[in-house]
């Protein structure tokens, strides 16, 4: 019986998928990896059995898949999605301490020069007619926990012509090279610090909590109950700093995903 | 034997009927070659292709050796008919050997037998098997390809052959050569052949009979000589050409028209004997031969009729000669070239074998004409007139 | 003969017309049944905005490729280039086997992200078929035709303009058609390197598993490809003189 | 330089991805030959069928590859294979149809009518004609179609990385998202080399399959 | 006038020199047509192309109207030379009109004038301008294309024309027609023409002179009749063919060889007058003409030499006739056809104009031969021998 591990299309997810693969392989499982996918495709694939396990973010499931509109605390969020997804045959294992939330970032110098520190500041500038272009990934503009919700919460409209969509990893480069003024970043990405970005404060508390959590199909878990312990073991080792460092090893230090994943697992004594 | 009875083909060209072949009746006796001749679009190819059912006929009957081919399975029929198409149509993916062996293979011959047959046929069309068997068509010249095409059609030794302008793609010089070769071949094979051509010279040369078509109708079907000598109407006369009589000359060899027992004397003979011989034969000249029978000179009647002594005292010069195998056209050309009215005919060894005059040639041709002309030509002296008088008579 | 062929062709066209109509009809049912029309309406502003971007990418990269491709093709076909031309064409032929994604990726590694590397990548991908066809078309002009032109005292320039190019035009157009059709279909990949275009809707649609959004990108792209092909085919049909136009 | 170092230290991964890539293209084009060639031959019998089939096949190739993958996901999800290997294979299979069918059709149709007539005239049955004359002569052109299909689809398979099918596209997509020129260039080079190598290999096969007399 | 002086071309074929044209000296007088003839690869095309510098010469001189063309700009030179290439080479992207007007356009003629010229030329080559001007080459048959090619070469009325197998691509029947048309045209135009052919019949028909090449050398340059009558060596003799004398017959019209003042009598004449006339003319026959000068019958010398009374009592029949414009080949063919040795020659109106015999024809041909033969042929009676005796002499 093969365990299919999924992963989304950005560094952290590729790392997590790789770690999971190596971990499970070390435990003697046959592992198949399907990564590089978009969020919803991956989730759908899991729901209909094409993927057994992958690492999902609590907020993403809450807002995007379960379409919950309420504001909830991180714990509530976890409980809520665990409950809702159980109905779909998905089991949320233990959440890690890492919270990979969306953030809007700017080059430090430009942010200071323009005096933008929060999303509200940004909104004001835009409404004052300043043309601040914004690099986003494919998903963000169309997600309820992305630009759609953000615009509702802050009550503004980002002009279409200022939105530059691209592959998720490219926003960092675009911002670094000053091809845009604002970039969409993920909080645990190593490049925020490395490239000296500042993230804008979410002063209206729009973004939900995004705790990284292994999610597994109930069927798979029932067949391999010991998987819970294995994955929870890895989950326990993850927090914001660890994730940032791991991501940075790949994106900044240009180590390969396989190498970084393998090193981490062995350093932590997991394999 | 191929028999066509009221054979008709009406094509449907975009709704309009086109009568390509119109009630054609024709019989090719076994072992003979019939040439289908006529202007472009007159229905020659269509007639041919109806015989092996590449084109289905509209009406009429086609019989081979008396059997109605309608009753024969199409594939069966075609395997018994050799077919040489105008464009040669060798399969470029097969060697010469494979090309020739295609039909034997289809017939399920043993490989060994069909290969041996291929080599034999190649030899037959004068191509060295050791050189050509393994070649591909593109490695052959046009003329060589053509010969392989003929060999292929002959492979299963079909009694009947259909050939659509088989030598059309070859330049005039090589064409002659290949025609000659094929004639020799046919002399041995004695296939029943239907052969499309648009070239009157080729038709005259290759055919036992010529069928001339016009707009789908068979206008005249006759021997080459009769077609040339007695075209049944203006169309045929025009088609065979203004110089059709000169064309007829091609049909006759010198040995057929010459006087084969001419007066023959040796230098030591008495001249009176020579004069006597000339008078007996009604010849104006007597050829003097050497010890091996080769012409060495001649004496002219008028010069010696009153002379005496040995022949060698009266030689008038070396006679002009022509090969007995040459055609009459060459003989006539030689006469004009040398401004003479007679030639000594010699065989391959140069021996004197006969005596031919312009007059004999004219008579030979005239013999056929007079058979059919209603009235005797007043211009022609009655047969049996003595030579001297006849000469004067014109 | 010619009449028969054209009659057959028009039958063929009629058949194709019917199929097109049926396909459109079937698609219409599918679309309305799945509520896709609403989706299209919903994404219309995006479609409009991105289609313009898309076409701009095609127009700039394709336009440059046509100009440069024909120029290079002509240059390679000149007798003075004969010695190198075949080698250069070999290299170009190898070039055409390089996948467009790879070309875009390499172009990004050279020029960074955004529209510029996208245009450059698309330009390179479109250039090759045009050069190849221009060169082949010019080389295929029969030698005897050039001899006739020479023999009547045409200068090389006149010969190029009056004899060679007109006779190569059909083949050159075929190259342009191939190049631009591929170009239109490749532009979606430009999204990956931040180049914009309808790929944004396609990739997002796939990522978020929103079929409607994906189609909102894919259908206009396919339509643009077909329209481009059709438009060039029309130009090809009408702009090329009957004497050298196998379609007329 | 960095790229070379990257390549040498990751030969294993690159090799694995290459094999994934090849297996998608080989299986799909293999299936495409098995379907496309018979279709191409069949439609030579009927001009309007040919028009229809070729029209459909050419419509398929105007669909951008990434969109075709996108269409495949929901459809194949119904049988639990929306992502990964299967949609990649099917997309490649579909894209291969046009070059293979079109070349087969053209090649069979372009067999010199004189050869066809010669074959008929000597009493070959239609099937014999097909096997002995038409197909042998059509092979080089059919193979050229296969070559086109393979080269084109090596490129398209690279895009299949975006639906989790793996292959060398993975390197390109990672290279892009991690702005890592080493992976980017490695991926692009590997895919290009694979395409060129496949092209040469198939050219060699094509030459081998071409009857000597038509070479 | 075109003059070639020691013209030589040495190609470099992969390092090895190939002498394609070897010190050729040749002059084509203004208004005449010279045919370059010879086996494949003998250098005909190369010679031709050096004249308009499509191929650069290696050494030697080319003069046109006495002027060395080396001094003339290449483009200039070519615009003054009409060039018809073997493969026709019409531009498929241009209409017939545009094709013909290319050179006038290049020369900067007014559009109106060049278009008018195109129409005029089309008419000249017997194609209806209203039908053909706007057509494209592919919409024309091979023969029509060929004519347009000729028209195009004539467009700017160049004094010199180079034609490389211009009728090579046309089937034999249409070829004759086009050759005849071109001959008529040339009779008016009087261009200086150099014309490549590989067909001896075409050369004889079209050329004022024939230049026969072999392996780059000019072997013989002479009038068609001389080439046929006096081939200077075996190669030429073989090349022009075994029936070259019959070919020569084509070159001569009946009116050139006939006795143009024959004995002419009317039915009412006394037969003695007729006999006297025949004796004076040394003719065997006298033609009896009607009131409008048409032949109505004839009397034969032997039949009437002792007769008396009016001519009409002694008619021997209706004479066989031939047109005075026919060539001698037709005359000979007619003689063979009707088995006669003489023909009455009539003009277009059917009036009796001359008397021609086999003997005259032979003599006519022989006259040329004897000029050059070293010794008199013993077979030929000395000139001046009376007819009766001469007839007997052979
Ligand atoms: N498939 C067809 N449909 C309609 N008409 C046809 C067809 N095939 C031949 N024809 C017509 O039938 C007539 C006879 O054609 P056929 O090919 O038998 O002529 P042919 O004597 O062989 O001429 P050629 O010497 O040019 O080969 C022609 O008028 C031709 O146009
Ligand atoms: N470009 C060339 N390089 C080398 N040799 C050449 C070249 N062109 C012609 N030749 C050689 O020069 C010789 C004369 O060629 P040319 O074309 O003049 O012959 P031709 O008399 O016109 O023959 P044909 O009747 O076949 O047209 C031939 O032996 C030919 O092979
Ligand atoms: C990493 N985020 C939570 C920002 C986006 C995602 O759901 O993939
Ligand atoms: Mg025919
Ligand atoms: Mg030549």
From TrEMBL, chains B, E:
How does this chain sit within the bilayer? Peripheral membrane protein
Superkingdom classification of source = Bacteria
Stored Gene3D superfamilies: CBS-domain, P-loop containing nucleotide triphosphate hydrolases
- Primary location group: membrane
Q: Which InterPro entries match?
A: AAA+_ATPase, ABC_transporter-like_ATP-bd, ABC_transporter-like_CS, CBS_dom, CBS_dom_sf, Gly-betaine_transp_ATP-bd, P-loop_NTPase
According to the UniProt record, what class of enzyme is this?
translocase
GO BP of this protein: amino acid transport; glycine betaine transport
Reaction(s) catalysed by this chain's protein: a quaternary ammonium(out) + ATP + H2O = a quaternary ammonium(in) + ADP + phosphate + H(+)
The subcellular localization recorded is: Cell inner membrane
UniProt GO cellular component terms: plasma membrane
* UniProtKB keywords: ATP-binding, CBS domain, Cell inner membrane, Cell membrane, Membrane, Nucleotide-binding, Repeat, Transport
* Coiled-coil intervals, chain numbering: none
Q: Which parts of the sequence are annotated with region: Disordered?
A: 370-394
What positions does the domain CBS occupy? 258-317
**Pfam families per record:** ABC_tran, CBS
Residue ranges of every copy of the ABC transporter domain listed in the record: 2-240
Please provide, alphabetically and separated by semicolons, the GO molecular function terms listed in this UniProt record.
ABC-type quaternary ammonium compound transporting activity; ATP binding; ATP hydrolysis activity
Query: E.C. number, please?
Result: 7.6.2.9
The answer to whether keyword Calcium applies is no
Q: How does it assemble?
A: The complex is probably composed of two ATP-binding proteins, two transmembrane proteins and a solute-binding protein.
Name the family the entry cites.
Belongs to the ABC transporter superfamily.
**Protein name per its UniProtKB record:** Quaternary amine transport ATP-binding protein
Q: Organism source for this protein? A: Kaustia mangrovi
TrEMBL record, chain C:
- GO annotation, biological process: glycine betaine transport; transmembrane transport
Tell me where it mainly resides.
Answer: membrane
Q: Which GO terms describe its cellular component?
A: plasma membrane
**Presence of keyword Magnesium:** no
Q: How does it sit in the membrane?
A: Multi-pass membrane protein
Matching entries from PROSITE patterns are given as:
ABC_TM1 (PS50928)
Q: Which Pfam families match?
A: BPD_transp_1
- Could you list the residue ranges that cross the membrane? 15-37, 57-76, 112-131, 167-191, 211-232
List residues of the ABC transmembrane type-1 domain. Answer: 51-232
Which keywords are on file for this protein?
Answer: Membrane, Transmembrane, Transmembrane helix, Transport
| Location within or outside the cell | Cell membrane
- Extract the PANTHER family matched here: GLYCINE BETAINE/L-PROLINE TRANSPORT SYSTEM PERMEASE PROTEIN PROW, OSMOPROTECTANT IMPORT PERMEASE PROTEIN OSMW
Belongs to which family?
Belongs to the binding-protein-dependent transport system permease family.
This protein is called what?
ABC transporter permease
Lineage here is: Bacteria, Pseudomonadati, Pseudomonadota, Alphaproteobacteria, Hyphomicrobiales
UniProtKB/TrEMBL annotation, chain D:
Does the record's keyword annotation contain Transmembrane helix? Answer: yes
Tell me any Pfam family this protein matches.
Answer: BPD_transp_1
Q: InterPro entries from the xrefs?
A: ABC_transp_perm/SBD (IPR051204), MetI-like (IPR000515), MetI-like_sf (IPR035906)
Its main localization is: membrane
List all membrane-crossing ranges: 22-43, 52-72, 78-95, 152-172, 184-205
- Under the cellular component aspect of Gene Ontology, which terms does the record hold? plasma membrane
User: Where does the protein end up?
Assistant: Cell membrane
Keywords of the record? Membrane, Transmembrane, Transmembrane helix, Transport
GO BP annotation list = glycine betaine transport; transmembrane transport
Query: What is the topology of this protein in the membrane according to its UniProt annotation?
Result: Multi-pass membrane protein
Query: Any idea where the ABC transmembrane type-1 domain is?
Result: 18-202
PANTHER family in the record: GLYCINE BETAINE/L-PROLINE TRANSPORT SYSTEM PERMEASE PROTEIN PROW, OSMOPROTECTANT IMPORT PERMEASE PROTEIN OSMW
To which protein family does this belong?
Answer: Belongs to the binding-protein-dependent transport system permease family.
Q: Kindly provide the name given to this protein in its UniProt entry.
A: ABC transporter permease
List the source organism: Kaustia mangrovi
């Amino acid at each position: 019986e093969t365990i299919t591990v999924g992963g989304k299309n950005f560094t952290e997810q590729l790392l997590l998928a790789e770690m999971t693969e190596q971990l499970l392989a070390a435990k003697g499982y046959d592992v198949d990896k399907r990564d590089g996918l978009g969020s919803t495709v991956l989730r759908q694939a899991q729901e209909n059995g094409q993927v057994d396990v992958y690492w999902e973010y609590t907020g993403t499931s809450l807002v995007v898949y379960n379409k919950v509109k309420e504001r909830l605390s991180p714990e509530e969020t976890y409980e809520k999605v665990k409950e809702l997804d159980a109905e779909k045959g998905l089991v949320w294992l233990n959440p890690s301490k890492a919270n990979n939330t969306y953030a809007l970032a700017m080059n430090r110098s430009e942010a200071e020069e323009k005096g933008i520190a929060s999303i509200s500041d940004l909104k004001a500038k835009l409404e004052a007619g300043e043309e601040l272009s914004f690099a986003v990934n494919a998903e963000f503009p169309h997600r309820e926990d992305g630009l759609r919700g953000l615009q509702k919460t802050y009550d503004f409209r980002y002009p279409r012509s200022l939105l530059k969509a691209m592959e998720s990893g490219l926003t960092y480069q675009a911002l670094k090279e000053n091809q845009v003024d604002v970039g969409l970043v993920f909080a645990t990405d190593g490049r925020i610090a490395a490239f000296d970005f500042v993230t804008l404060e979410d002063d209206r508390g729009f973004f939900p909590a995004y705790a990284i959590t292994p999610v597994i199909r109930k069927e798979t878990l029932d067949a391999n109950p010991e998987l819970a312990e294995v994955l929870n073991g890895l989950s326990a080792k993850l927090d914001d700093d660890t994730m940032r460092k791991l991501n940075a090893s790949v994106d900044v230090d240009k180590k390969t995903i396989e190498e970084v994943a393998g090193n981490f697992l062995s350093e932590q004594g997991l394999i | 034997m191929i028999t066509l009875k009221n054979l008709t083909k009406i094509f449907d060209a975009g709704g309009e009927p086109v009568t390509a072949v119109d009630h054609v009746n024709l019989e090719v006796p076994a072992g003979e070659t019939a040439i289908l001749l006529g202007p472009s679009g007159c229905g020659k190819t269509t007639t041919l292709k109806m015989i092996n059912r590449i084109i289905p006929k509209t009406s009429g009957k086609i019989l081979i050796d008396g059997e109605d081919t309608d009753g024969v399975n199409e594939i069966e029929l075609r395997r018994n008919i050799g077919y040489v198409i105008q464009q040669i149509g060798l399969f470029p993916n097969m060697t010469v050997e494979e090309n020739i062996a295609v039909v034997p293979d289809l017939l399920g011959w043993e490989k060994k037998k069909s290969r041996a047959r291929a080599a034999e046929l190649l030899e037959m069309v004068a191509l060295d098997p050791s050189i050509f068997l393994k070649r591909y068509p593109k490695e052959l010249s046009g003329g060589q390809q053509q010969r392989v095409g003929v060999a292929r059609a002959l492979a299963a030794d079909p009694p009947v052959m259909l050939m659509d302008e088989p030598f059309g793609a070859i330049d005039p010089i090589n064409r002659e050569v290949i025609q000659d070769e094929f004639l020799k071949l046919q002399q041995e094979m004695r296939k029943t052949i239907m052969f499309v051509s648009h070239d009157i010279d080729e038709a005259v040369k290759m055919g036992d009979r010529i069928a001339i078509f016009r707009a789908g109708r068979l206008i005249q079907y006759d021997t080459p000589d009769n077609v040339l000598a007695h075209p049944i109407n203006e169309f045929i006369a025009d088609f065979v050409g203004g110089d059709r009589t000169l064309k007829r000359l091609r049909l006759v060899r010198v040995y057929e028209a010459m006087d084969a027992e001419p007066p023959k004397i040796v230098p030591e003979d008495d001249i009176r004997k020579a004069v006597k011989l000339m008078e007996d034969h009604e010849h104006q000249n007597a050829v003097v031969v050497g010890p091996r029978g080769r012409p060495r000179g001649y004496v002219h009647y008028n010069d010696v009729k009153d002379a005496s002594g040995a022949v060698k005292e009266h030689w008038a010069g070396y006679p002009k000669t022509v090969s007995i195998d040459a055609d009459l056209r060459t003989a006539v050309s030689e006469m004009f070239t040398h401004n003479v009215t007679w030639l000594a005919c010699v065989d391959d060894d140069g021996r004197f074998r006969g005596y031919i005059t312009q007059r004999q040639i004219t008579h030979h041709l005239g013999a056929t004409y007079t058979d059919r002309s209603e009235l005797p030509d007043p211009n022609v002296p009655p047969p049996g007139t003595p030579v001297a008088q006849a000469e004067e008579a014109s | 003969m010619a009449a028969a062929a054209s009659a057959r062709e028009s039958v063929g066209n009629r058949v194709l017309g019917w199929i097109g109509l049926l396909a459109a009809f079937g698609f219409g049912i599918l679309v309305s049944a799945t509520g896709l029309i609403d989706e299209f309406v919903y994404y219309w502003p995006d479609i409009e905005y991105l289609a313009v971007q898309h076409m701009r990418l095609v127009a700039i990269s394709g336009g440059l490729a046509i100009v440069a491709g024909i120029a290079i093709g002509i240059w390679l076909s000149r007798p003075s280039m004969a010695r190198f031309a075949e080698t250069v064409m070999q290299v170009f032929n190898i070039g055409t086997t390089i996948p467009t994604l790879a070309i875009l990726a390499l172009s990004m590694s050279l020029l960074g992200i955004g529209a510029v590397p996208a245009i450059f990548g698309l330009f390179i991908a479109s250039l090759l078929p045009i050069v190849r066809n221009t060169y082949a078309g010019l080389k295929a002009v029969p030698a005897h035709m050039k001899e006739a032109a020479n023999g009547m005292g045409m200068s090389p320039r006149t010969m190029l303009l009056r004899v060679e190019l007109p006779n190569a035009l059909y083949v050159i157009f075929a190259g342009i058609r191939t190049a631009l059709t591929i170009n239109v279909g490749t532009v979606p990949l430009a999204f990956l390197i931040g180049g914009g275009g309808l790929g944004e809707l396609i990739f997002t649609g796939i990522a978020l598993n929103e079929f409607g959004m994906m189609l909102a990108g894919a259908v206009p792209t396919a339509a643009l490809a077909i329209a481009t092909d059709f438009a060039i085919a029309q130009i090809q049909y009408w702009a090329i003189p009957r004497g050298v136009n196998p379609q007329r | 330089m960095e790229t070379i170092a990257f390549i040498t230290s990751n030969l294993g991964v690159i090799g694995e991805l290459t094999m994934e890539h090849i297996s998608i293209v080989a299986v799909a084009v293999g299936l495409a030959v098995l379907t496309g060639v018979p279709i191409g031959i069949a439609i030579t019998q009927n001009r309007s069928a040919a028009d229809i089939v070729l029209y459909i096949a050419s419509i398929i190739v105007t669909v951008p590859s990434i969109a075709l993958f996108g269409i495949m996901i929901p459809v194949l999800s119904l049988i639990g294979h929306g992502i990964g290997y299967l949609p990649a294979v099917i997309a490649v299979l579909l894209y291969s149809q046009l070059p293979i069918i079109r070349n087969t059709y053209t090649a069979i149709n372009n067999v010199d009518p004189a050869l066809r007539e010669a074959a008929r005239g000597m009493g070959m049955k239609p099937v014999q004609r097909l096997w002995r004359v038409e197909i042998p002569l059509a092979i080089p052109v059919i193979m050229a179609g296969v070559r086109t299909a393979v080269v084109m689809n090596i490129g398209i398979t690279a895009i299949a990385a975006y639906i989790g099918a793996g292959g060398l596209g993975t390197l390109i997509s990672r290279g892009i998202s991690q702005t890592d020129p080493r992976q980017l260039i490695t991926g692009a080079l590997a895919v290009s080399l694979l395409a060129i190598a496949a092209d040469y290999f198939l050219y060699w096969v094509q030459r081998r399959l071409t009857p000597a007399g038509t070479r």
